[in-house]
Amino acid sequence: MVIPCYNDGAFVHEAVDSALAQTHALADIIVVDDGSTDPATLIALKSVERDGVVVHRQENLGLPAARNAGIRQASGDYILPLDSDDRIGPHYAEMAAGVLDGDPDVGIVGGQIEFFGMREGRVNPTYNGIEGMLFENCLYTCSVTRRADWATVGGYPEGARFAEDWIYWLRILGLGRSVHLLEEVVWFYRQRPGQMTRSMDSRTASTAVIQAMRDQPDLYAAHMDVVTDYLESKTMVLDSFRRRYGRANDLLARVLPLVRSVSR
Fold it and tell me: Fewest beta carbons less than 10 Å away: which of 9, 14, 31, 261?
């Protein structure tokens, strides 16, 4: 298990405790200190280290690089990433390992999510094939993958400014892997002010799509019918806005050249 941490000392103990409580013995629990500067966080990380958890320290390189650094330090066959302010259910590692042990075609194992913090509720992710993942991330951060697949695809995209988990899932799916979603709640997702997933606007979302297309052009080219349908729907929306407001060319101008290059 890999837990990146940047100035999250108030919560990191909860994340680590949920890892230590797993019914399936974890090969490693590695906390990656991604250049934390907060004194309380530095104290918390020293406390975690005294509990026998490995703490890998590095300069602040961002979340994808922190995850990759922790995975390089790990020795297990499977990767379970956990953000430092979240928790996992005690049976998650056991259930995920059972699925991956039993089916070599499965590349991603996730499950149901429960929110806590400033918002409560439950989400039941669905996966209906790779076509549904091309323009929307249907999976969540705390999903389990194979270390061998991580190595094959080059890990998490360290150049991505956001949506790095989405691009990573697409890299894994590009290997021909399938997805298995457990019916149990396995991830407890803390809701806090300022989260990217809560504040992503249309421009940010379109940029995420462009990042994914640039990272996986062959994958998108292989599903050009889905790409065409997506563009047609966006064009209809833009035409509607153009008629109403006279200015809505930005998204189309950014996406079309990339799609043309992927088609070529």
Answer: 261
